[in-house]
Design goal:
By secondary structure, the chain is mainly α. The chain is 73% helix and 3% strand. The protein is globular. It starts with a helix and ends with a helix.
Length: 318
Amino acid sequence: MELTGQLAFILAACLLDAMFGDPVYRLHPIRLIGDWSLFWERRLFAIDWSGRGGGMLHWLLVVGGVLLVWLVVRAGFGLVHAWLATLWDLFIAYSLLCMRDLLAHGQRVLDALDDLPSARQRAGMLMARDTDQLQRDGVVRATIESLSESLTDGVLTPLWALCLFGLPGLILVKAVSSLDSMVGYKSARYARFGWAAARSDDLVHWIPARLSVPLIALAAAVLKLHPRLAIRAAWDYHAMLPSPNSGWSEAACAGALRVRLIGPIHQRGVLITERFMGEPDWPADLDAGHLKQALTLILVCCLLALVAGCLFAAIAAR
């Protein structure tokens, strides 16, 4: 695909995402990837292939199968008409981008902040922690954390993979992320089997996570927030999270907004941490104004990421 056509395709997919958001239906590609992952997981465990070797085979079967299905369906449409193949590609790209949904989830929490039980329930849809005892400030902190973490794996990596490597790159990173969410846990069942999924997920997000820092700093400069603090906080606090990647964007957003994040976190009734991310004199008692500011910051980051992605595509095409 020539550069003009590639850029038009990227912009069209992003425009569809901005207009309609992520389509919700049973046969959504991400749901099908999850079903495909579970299908092979059950069969491999049934024959006692539950170690790293089985996990690597599972990775190949799932990721390879997803790419093969896309290619076969595309070829079938192409036999009928080239435009049908293009529309198929556009539909898949639109289905795998989720910039609007990330912002929409945050907005739903913001809209419910005056009704704390509802706000807790909506925040709980974004994260794995317990939310039923969170106070208003805790709901806001947790939502900002989820938005800033998801900026990397939900927006930057998929978008830039599409821009640099085309639709196959987007499909691959979404399949890898889906696999990580299915089997990438450090549990007794998945500690060895999920190794390939977890490590590949770390790998695909490694560069976007670190590039998120200057991106967030630039967005903070555009909004006249705290770009220098974004860079400093990312350097000082990114290691607070166990993931090698998610701490970069979360810490940068904390600095850009000049707020403290994290604080007391419970999972299944167990206190995981009480530490705060950010300087002691930054506020932790956050309110609706802070969440509005965070949503605006994430929106500007998404727009800047699209511009950067188009530049990446142009450079790669030279």
